Amino acid sequence: MERILNQKKYFVFFIGGTTLVITYLHYSTLPAIRDLHNIFGELYYLPLLVAALVFGLKGAVSTFIIITILYAPFVFINWTGTYLSITSKLLHALFSGSFAIVAGILVDREKRRLEQTERERYLAGLGRAAAAIAHDLKNPIISILGFSRRILERKGDIDAASQAVLDSAQDMQDIVHDVLDFAKPVSLDSPKADIFSVIRKVCRSCEAKALDEGIVLKTGLPDETVSCRVDQLHMERALVNLINNAIEASRKGGMVVVSAEAGENRFVIKIKDYGEGMDNETLENVFIPFYTKKISGTGLGMAIAKKIIEAHQGSIQINSREHSGTEVIIKLPLKTS
Ligand code: ADP
Ligand code: MG
Asked: How far is the CA of 178 from the centre of ligand 2 (A)?
């Protein structure tokens, strides 16, 4: 908002400046260089057009009034009294006034149309997000209700039912965390940390899941320390999302390799799997919030990871082939100071 206001300030200077320069040239070329004088008179359309484009009808009309006031003395200096000359001046004023009004009205109408489209898109997005969250929460809620009833009625295996309630509550907590992570702006707390140990910690925390799914999680990290400014918690969250996706995409017995290396001024992390890969549709939509192809996915993991990496001024790139696997490459600037 502040940036837009600042830019508008420059446009006010531009419109005021060009109007004054044109007025000066318009007066100073009279009567010696009449053709130039007429050309400068026509140039008044430029500030009028800019005012209409930037400020709409109000701006165009105000600029027209200022130009008319500046132009008026010229009419009297150059007064010939002939009917033709008065008509020509009046027509000129009428045309430029109509131009200002029509351009202003058109610009205002276009702005209103864009605002309306933007509002509709925002509401549609909000609706889609709400539907996606409600859909994700529905399954664990149904299972909590079902199993709690069984526990109350003391039917079946009470321990298994209690575990199912706990698992479903955990799923709900994960969903709520994902949604909060996505909705919150990323504010970085970036003291210096050894980026390799951040990655090692993440890999350790993902090992249990890999083991559960029969996947080998390999790390290819050099035995060195690279201390740089990263928000540890956020970076861990981004990497966990990406490694979990790689594990989930792999076939039983498959392998996920996490590697990293520090260059001169950037740091590259690669997460490679040999799993199902992505088709073109998935590749195009993978960073769109709530896009998921999994039955119980939130579709927020990739969007959150991208948001966190970009907040570190980094980039995330995906190389993937359907049925052959995926490699996610993260590049981070090495800010060591
Ligand atoms: P979720 O994991 O909840 O589905 P994500 O945002 O993490 O949401 O991922 C979105 C989609 O991108 C996944 O449903 C999956 O189809 C695809 N995807 C992400 N990572 C991979 C990967 N390594 N291999 C294949 N597909 C992937
Ligand atoms: Mg995911």
From this structure: 10
- pLDDT band per the 50, 70, 90 thresholds, residue 191: confident
Q: Quick check: is 159 in a domain?
A: yes
Residue 302 and residue 207 share a domain: yes
Q: Are residues 113 and 158 in the same domain?
A: no
Which domain does 140 fall in, by range? 132-183
**Could you tell me which residues come within 8 angstroms of residue 330 by beta carbon, excluding any fewer than 6 positions away?**
238, 242, 268, 269, 270, 271, 309, 314, 315, 316, 317
Q: Are residues 98 and 145 in the same domain?
A: no
Among the atoms of ligand 1, which is closest to the Cα of residue 287? 6
Residue 246: nearest ligand to its CA?
A: 1
More confident residue, 40 or 273: 273
Question: Which ligand sits closest to the CA of 328?
Answer: 1
- As a whole number of angstroms, the distance between CA 208 and CA 220 comes to 18
- In the prediction, which pLDDT does 6 show? 64
Pocket test for ligand 1, best of 171, 242, 245 (most atoms within 8 A of CB): 245
